[in-house]
């Protein structure tokens, strides 16, 4: 709807450069990564979906692609997953859904989890 209204008013939609977490918190959703230790990709996914998945109690799968920032965000999230006890397999699977094209994905996960499975 945002894109349609932008074009109707003769403007162009602005690209988002912040994560889904921002929209999630604005919607009043609890953080399911922190509170329930579920693998949510909201912290590294580009906003614009109005946190639909999380609003319906489903962890974000990263469908809008990664935020346009350095891979440090991915490192940080993968480390959080590890600290929360989320398995390496779950983390790799989750990141590969929409991030398989990222050349830094495997080296970053290998660094955090200590090598290949």
Overall residue-averaged pLDDT value = 84
Described by strand count, sense and barrel closure, the largest sheet is: none
Instruction: Report, as a whole number of angstroms, the end-to-end distance.
Output: 43 Å
Helix/sheet category: mainly alpha
Helix fraction by DSSP (H/I, runs of at least 4): 40-55%
Please compute the radius of gyration using only Cα atoms: 15 Å
Overall outline: globular
Tally of discrete structural domains: 1
Strand content: under 5%
Number of strands: 0
Runs in which pLDDT lies below 50 for 5 or more consecutive residues are none
Tally of separate helices:
7
Strand-and-helix sequence, N→C?
HHHHHHH
Describe the 3D structure:
This protein is mostly helical and 117 residues long. The protein has one domain (18-113). It is 48% helix and 0% strand. It contains seven helices and no strands. The chain has helices at 2-8, 20-26, 32-36, 52-55, 72-83, 88-99, 105-113. Helix 6 (88-99) runs antiparallel to helix 7.
């Amino acid at each position: 709807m945002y894109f349609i209204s932008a074009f109707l008013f003769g403007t162009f939609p602005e690209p988002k450069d912040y994560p889904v977490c921002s929209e999630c918190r604005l919607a009043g959703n609890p953080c399911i990564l922190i509170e329930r230790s579920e693998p949510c990709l909201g912290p590294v996914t580009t906003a614009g979906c109005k946190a639909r998945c999380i609003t319906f109690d489903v962890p974000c799968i990263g469908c809008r692609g990664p935020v346009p920032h350095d891979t440090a965000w991915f490192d940080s999230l993968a480390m959080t997953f590890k600290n929360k006890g989320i398995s390496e397999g779950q983390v790799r699977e989750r990141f590969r859904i929409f991030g398989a094209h990222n050349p830094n994905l495997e080296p970053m996960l290998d660094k955090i989890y200590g090598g290949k499975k």
